[in-house]
Structures are given as C-alpha cells and as structure tokens.
Amino acid sequence: MVYYIFYDIVVKMGTRLYCYYLLTVISFSLSCNSRKGEIRDLFTDENDHWIKMGEATWSFDQEKLIGTANGSTGFVMTRDRFADFILELEFYPDNTVNSGVFIRCEEKVLSAVECYELNIWDQHPDQTARTGAVVQRSPPLNLVHTINRWNRYRIVCKENNISAWINDQQVVDLTDNSLSNGYIGLQVAESGSIRFRNIQLTCLEE
Hints:
This protein is mainly beta. It contains two helices and twelve strands. It has helices at residues 2-12, 15-29; strands at residues 39-41, 50-54, 57-61, 64-70, 74-78, 85-93, 97-105, 116-120, 151-158, 161-166, 169-175, 183-203. Strands 1, 2, 3, 4, 5, 6, 7, 8, 9, 10, 11 and 12 form a twelve-stranded antiparallel sheet that branches. Strand 10 and strand 11 (169-175) form a beta hairpin. The longest helix has 15 residues, at 15-29. The two termini are 17 Å apart.
C-alpha cells in the first residue's frame, strides 16, 4: 500500500508532499510499537519514550512516578500515539491535588476537548466531573473515594468505546467518535502531589 502511495504522490504532487504523507502513514501504522497483546511499561525512569511539560515537578522514588504542583500545572506524555489498548495503573493522590489520565490526545497538550480526560479529583467543585468522570463527556457511573490510598485504574479503549474501572468499580462506559487515537498523558495541577506506579499498556491493535 505504501508503494502505491509513493507513486501516486510523487507523480502528481511532488516529493515534498509525499515525504510528509508517508511519515504520517508510518506514525499511525506503528502507533502501538508492539504486538497485539504485548504489555508495555509506560513512564518509567529507564526509557525516554515520554516527555515532561508544564511547571510542575516530576521525580522518581522507588519506581514510583511522583508529580508535585504548587499552584502550577504540568504533565507527562508519551511520544507515541495509541488507538486501541488497555491501560492499567495505580495512583495515590493526596487530599488537595487535581490530577487525571488523558488518552487519545490529538496534540501534546492537555485538553478535555482534544483528549479524553479521565479525572482523578475527588474534591472537584462539580461532582459530575469528579474522579472517574470523562470530563465534559460523562459523569462517573459510581462514586469511588481515592484520597490518601493506592487505587487502580483500568481503562479499555476499543474503537469508539471507552470503559474504565477504579478499584474494580466501573466508572466509565462511553461511546464517542470524536477521537480515534493519540498520545497518553498524566496530569498534576493545583497544589499537592500524586504518585503513580505499575503503568502498563496492552496493545489491542492488529
């Protein structure tokens, strides 16, 4: 298929446009960078497959990724894009932090519109957007309390459906066609800290 794209674009549009188009095709076709069913560790201190952005502080302590904000906002984000996957992670928020898991982000920025934002914020002023909500899209199906304890998020993205569980309680069952693939990010904002560990992605793409 790529060879036909090469011929068509080079003949009709020129080499420069072809190069851009081919790179785009490659970036999407290799989005999972692993075989279907293979488990991949994300956001570890042993690889450079992710970036830090914003004014918050990120550090590691005994294999835990710690985000700290002091009236600031920051995030970490994968360098690769992902479409269909299972994302599992453990998180430990304090009682003031605003955090969340962002998936299928169109760009390397945090946005409840250009990403799916699965919230981690028990104290959200709008409780329809509290922990377990997909912000601006879906309130949590169940009320889960997560402050000052280890919790487990399990997020399944398959085609146009997103399902999620916190501590084995389902909080999300969303059907939405807005975003088909993108980057994955973890946020820390407002004031406080959050710890993450055992962040693993299982590829569901063929």
